[in-house]
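Recall the central idea of this unit: under ordinary conditions, the amino acid sequence of a chain determines the structure it adopts. In this exercise we apply that idea directly, starting from the sequence alone.
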Amino acid sequence: MSFFDKIFGGKGEATEQKSFWKKIESEEDLQKAVESSFQHRIAIFKHSTSCFISKTVLKNFEKEIENLDQKIDLYYLDLLAHRPISNKIAEDLGVTHQSPQLIVIENGKAINNASHQSISVDQII
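Accordingly, the structure predicted from this sequence is:
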């Protein structure tokens, strides 16, 4: 592994998916996520798997979440694999697409969103 791969992560490096994420891979998954927002607040993290900034923001956010006392349903969307779903989120919730992006949803409506280095647990609580 080269010096830069150790710092930035090599192409062959597998991304470890944290267990608290619920994946959104279909419109049905998205619909279920939004429906659950009527029971409690949820958050969707839109991530570009090929972007170093997005990867860094995701790792930092995951560290914050692990220390959160409050339970919240967290959903993960791989933008490269599921771009049409990202477009549907933007259209249905009226939130301009960003990457990376965290969208907080309550009662079927986006109540907060942040992108890039502005993403933190503070947007959720």
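The CA atoms of residues 15 and 49 lie 9 Å apart.
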